[in-house]
Amino acid sequence: MKRTGQRFLWLVLCALLLAALPTNSLAAVELPSVTFVSPSMASKRPFWNDFIAFMKVAAEDLGINLTVLEADNRFEVNDLVRKTLSGQARPDYLVSIYQADTTIATLTMARDAGVKTLIVNTDVVDAERAAAGSPRGIYPSWIGHIFPDDASAGRMLAKRLFDRAGQMNLRAPDGKIHVIGLGGSHTATSSSHRRTGLLSAVADFPDVVVDQFVLAYWKREVSRQKAVKLLSLYPDATVFWAINDHTAMGVLDAMDKRGAVPGKDILTGGIDWSPECVGKVLNGSMVTTIGGHFMEGAWALLLLLDYHNGHDFAQPDPTLHSEMRIIDSDTAHRFLPVLDRDNWPSIDFRRLSKTYNPGLEKYDFSPDAVARQLSEQ
Description:
Blueprint: H1 2-20, H2 24-27, E1 33-38, H3 46-62, E2 65-70, H4 74-86, E3 93-97, H5 103-113, E4 116-120, H6 129-132, E5 142-148, H7 150-167, E6 177-183, H8 189-203, E7 208-215, H9 220-233, E8 237-242, H10 245-258, E9 267-271, H11 275-282, E10 288-291, H12 296-308, E11 319-322, E12 325-327, H13 332-339, H14 367-376
Parallel strand pairs: 1-2, 1-3, 3-4, 4-5, 5-11, 6-7, 6-8, 8-9, 9-10
Antiparallel strand pairs: 10-12
Helix pairs in contact: 3-12, 4-5, 7-8, 9-10, 13-14
């Protein structure tokens, strides 16, 4: 009996010693260097501020050496890329978004420099699809692409607005729900895809008619100016579908000028999960804001870390989609903790990585993955 007890104690001691040492799989993790070139100054665009901040938290947790460069416009992006790739300390990977008239040059420079590229946030513009191809095609060093399903987001926003308008019976004398659409720009794929989602939803609602669709160029002031004019031209309009949160805020500004009550006389909603618009959703001024795609920088780092350590994401497709979710009065309690920056350092990004979690079979690039972790704490 004494010998059995000693043997058990020895086994426990050995187990404790082994647990204190890094496993072979973790000890062998190679940590890549990554440069992200942002298309905007974080101080000028709340979305990119959140995108970069979340990406930096993920990089620290994953042990990735991340450098963030901020451009003031899309043409400055290539200047930053050129300087980065011509220097002695080239990164292992370059992350950027797809922008018309500039990204093919970015892909060419990265290929020539022997640096692999991952594109986030935006799809390839139609006019350049033949020249750019797809990841691992014309440009083999372009190893991956991750961007949100913007058509789905535009559709979700429209359906939520139309449903609420129907419930509130915000119909014109002709029995129809009249809608104004405020888009982004001609060149951004996120703008065109979200508009496709809007039109898809309209086709499912026979009592909905779009009076006018105009571009607001993602800007609050432009949206305000156009919404003021459109409210005069189309007095029966009770729904304003907005391409993003900035644009939705411009609609609220226009309503204030007209004396309309937001959330009662006229409904609007946006896309981005900006703190200001989340607040407007909570006080009833806006119907919803849709977002979560600010997390894509972190998802990109997970893909690159895994790729760097032999867990290729090429199958079934090196093009992946992140997921967006609705924040409204019913879902706010679930996603508000995700938006609280004080909670971000407690997120275990390694749980979402195949390098640190070899048993992981499928990536979950959704706000739900983060919300679940935070709910456990």
